Amino acid sequence: MLNAWELLLKARILKANRNKLRSIEVWEPRITKTGSGKRLAPKKNRAGNTMTIGVLPGANIVRQYAQDSIDDHAIENISLLMEIRDNAIHFHNVSRDLHKRVQEVGAAALRNFAFAARKWFNCDLSQYQFALMPVAFETPAGVIQTVFNDDTKGAAGKLAKLLADQERKFPFEAAKPFNVGVEVELKFVRNANAQAIPVIVSPNDPNAIRVTLSEEDMLKRYPWDYRTLCKALRKTPNFKENERFHKLRRPLEDDPRLCRVRLLDPRNKKSSKQRFYSPAILDEIVKHYV
Fold it and tell me: Does the structure show a pLDDT above 50 at 46?
């Protein structure tokens, strides 16, 4: 994302300077051959090519433009991306909170980039369907674990605090073209769209990505109680609520894709329990009656 931003900013500077390469080149003072003074000359890299400006100098130049510029929110977002990159070497295991904040900053960077590309060059990136893949979203709780003994004072802890502080300083506003971070919410919906991302539920795979569902998500995914399930099955020929049905149903209730046991009062662990079913269980039962 940083490389993409650097190229886009350089393109914007070249556009403002009629494609003059000097506008993005790094020049430095050098002593003349006579030694009597200094003159500006292009700075060379190890390969002997002229060096060009980096992403932050480019962002600061574009910030000064009267039109088609960027603001402090965009620059701060780019700065946080650089902090994440520069501090990544210190991470061993990071907390759920840091995972979430990195996702928020990265998603905002992509959103900002898409807006700038469309505004500056009339380039619509929606056709490419860019997206940042969410990784194991959970509630922002837990302790950040790093290679350091004191996690709260280690590298990851310091970075998490920086991200949190800057997001509070630059709060998300949906109406603004540029933001430091975005509010991320993950939802699962059934969709027959051919372009939808396929998801495989693998409850027995210890390496599978972990996703925590809220009570609201659970009710949407498992909306049927026992009575609702039986009512739906009555439309099936030869169905009867008898021992055969119970023998078919009970093994399916052990499959977390089809059934969940939920506390009637989630706040009380001693509360009564009730099974809720996914509509997908209907197909598994009906095929035994057809």
Answer: yes
